[in-house]
Amino acid sequence: MSIFVIAEIGINHNGDINLCKQLIDVAKEAGADAVKFQKRSIDLVYTPEFLDSNRDSPWGETQRDQKEGLEFGFDEYTQINDYCKDKQIEWFASAWDTESQIFLRQFNCAYNKVASAMIVHEPLLKLIAEEKKHTFISTGMSSYDQIDKAVEIFKKANCPFELMHTVSTYPMKDEDANLNVIKTLKDRYKCNIGYSGHEVGLAVSYAAAALNISSLERHITLDRAMYGSDQSASVEPSGFKNLVGAVRKIEKAMGDGIKRTSEQELLVARNLRQHIQ
């Protein structure tokens, strides 16, 4: 089974549909299987006090200005939908509230995503699970009890899913990756396990690809120095292309685990062992 590579655009488009299309191009050219976004209903996800608090950004001086500046609506998602169809790449989004999940239904995406922060939002999980679409569930910031409840919801709804090992720091330190949790989750939940990475660089993702993951998600950006909270934990175009290429090589290199001697090896053996034959 090939690793399903997800290019997380998230909010790295900075509210600019043209920048968004450039990021879709990056994902497609690199060979990703899908691009992913984030959808929020601002007044449901954040408190009025938070939204009224100060935050300088390109869109104004409050948190509301910044959040609304980053949020795409129907027109932008219609363009995303059309553009991805034209480019022949899948797209989907992680909803942060039930209203956003209902909003996304009108585009009939093939997949759903539960963000780490939302794994404890049981009404949202039930709403997602009732769609019975394959769902990627990130497990950052979560205890076993919280993951257990999420898994129970999806199993009860007979909705296909996989978990994604995630460490929700931005950027994540390499020493915090704890990639052996991939096997721990697989043993505990008897399901496919992916990896959603927030580290700087590619080495940790390469290692994850060698641990029999089913999916790999990384944030992408045109420039890590751009405005945005996720940019520093993202991969630039050349790096993402290298990542996807390396992942495909790693998949081939892992093999089936059966020890065998190839015809090419036998030829070498006859030459190097000629003095003992």
**Percentage of residues in DSSP E strands:** 15-25%
**What name is given to the CATH topology?**
TIM Barrel
Poorly predicted ranges: none
If classified by CATH, what would the architecture be? Alpha-Beta Barrel
Compressed to H and E, one letter per element, the order equals EHEHHEEHHEHEHEHEHEHEHH
> Going across the major beta sheet, what is the strand order?
5-2-1-10-9-8-7-6
User: What is the arithmetic mean of pLDDT?
Assistant: 97
What's the Cα radius of gyration?
Answer: 21 Å
The biggest sheet amounts to:
8 strands, parallel
CATH superfamily: Aldolase class I
Count of discrete alpha- or pi-helical segments spanning 4 or more residues: 12
Structural category is alpha/beta
Task: Work out the count of structural domains.
Answer: 1
Give the distance, in angstroms, between the N- and C-terminal Cα atoms. Answer: 42 Å
Question: How many extended strands?
Answer: 10
CATH class: Alpha Beta
Helix content: 40-55%
- Write down the overall geometry: globular
Comma- or semicolon-separated keywords:
two-stranded antiparallel sheet, 12 helices, 277 residues, alpha/beta, single chain, 8-stranded parallel β-sheet, TIM Barrel, globular
